[in-house]
Amino acid sequence: MWPRLLASRILSVFTDHKETHKIFVSTWNVGGVAPANDLDLEDLLDTCNTPCDIYVLGFQEVVPLRTANVLGLDNKKVCNKWNSLIKKALNRKTSGSQAAAKPSPQLQEFRRLISKQMVGIFISVWVRGDLHPYVRNANVSSVGCGIMGYLGNKGSVSVRFRLHETSFCFVCSHLASGGRVGDEKLRNSNVTDILSRTSFPRGPTPRMPGKIIDHARVILLGDLNYRISLSDVETRSLVGENEWDLLMVNDQLKKELMDDQALEGWHEGAINFAPTYKYYPNSESYYGTHPGKKGEKKRAPAWCDRILWYGEGLKQHLYTRSESMLSDHRPVKAIFSCEINVLQTVGGHRSFFFSERFEKKITSSSLEISIQH
Predict the structure, then answer these.
(1) Using CA atoms, how far apart are residues 177 and 31, in angstroms rounded to an integer?
(2) Which of 95, 148, 89, 144 lies closest to 121, judged by CA?
């Protein structure tokens, strides 16, 4: 294994330092509604006022959760459309006269690092162009927790990568639904399944974590579906009075975070925005506000759409919702800053020794040596 040993010896002479980067994360259950060609994502991304270095957008129900979609092939057309809209919004500020100027970090073109769909769950990760060469070991892992405990109508799609010397993992999830007493246990079970069944290749060098929580920076986003443990009447009354703190006392996810069982070690920022579910389509009114059909479920308002992080190393600066009326959910977004470890560049050698090109070379070299012996 002398190529790896040689690389480690050479890299041992490099010094390291820390850089701070900003990460945008959003989650949005779009209710099976395909986006219009002219859908503007600026309200969600807010790139002009809060530019970030990495953008992670998670979606649920990008296709209707019909049997044909759950059992059939993924519909790549709708995900391609979302990627096109994301690219247009992120790179809008690099067009025109600004593009002619010398690029600054805020004017760098964004490149899609990776995107992945599993039935209705879709995650798309974008990085600033000048950071892209320093990203490696990008992988995805999907876990189905839906019908029969394995189909992809519920579950997660996780993306992980290493930026410079710091590993990241983003978990886009859609957990079990239901507002009955005890349904939160199904969601807890989904979380346990996702954390235990998600696995990534370890990689040749440097060794990468195989499990979600072993990464240095971990963020969970999605329609987690946790509800408020109050009656429909009490919930709607408190929502009408903007009593978020009183509602939070009875929020199922907050209770799970405090109990330190299924979600031990996870954190969530303070919620100072209205519940994100369930709305009438193209309306500011919650479902059940108007008289419905006989026997129709009212579905009290709830903060189903959440963003959590695990362990240390992430600082949250923003946690709020956006106001798009595309579906019965409102999007939720967060901005984090984090420090990452960076090896000091000496010429161009550092980027080669920590590139995937070098990893392929040492893998093939190791194979040749083993064959010769």
Answers:
(1) 13
(2) 144
Residue carrying structure tokens 């920076």? 217
**Whole-number Å distance between alpha carbons of 159 and 361:** 25
Question: How many CA within 13 A on the CB side of residue 26?
Answer: 30
Model-level pTM greater than 0.90? no
| CA–CA distance, 136 with 308 (Å, rounded to integer) | 24
66-95 as b/e: b if 16+ CB within 10 A = eeebbeeebbeebbebbbebbbebbbbbbe
Whether 360 shows a pLDDT value over 70: the answer reads no
- In this predicted structure, the answer to whether residue 71 has a pLDDT above a threshold of 70 is yes
Q: Given the DSSP bridges, would you call strands 121-128 and 135-144 parallel, antiparallel or unpaired?
A: unpaired
- Mean pLDDT, range 202-211, rounded to an integer: 80
- pLDDT per residue as tens digits for the range 27-36: 999 999 999 9
* Residue 54, pLDDT score: 98
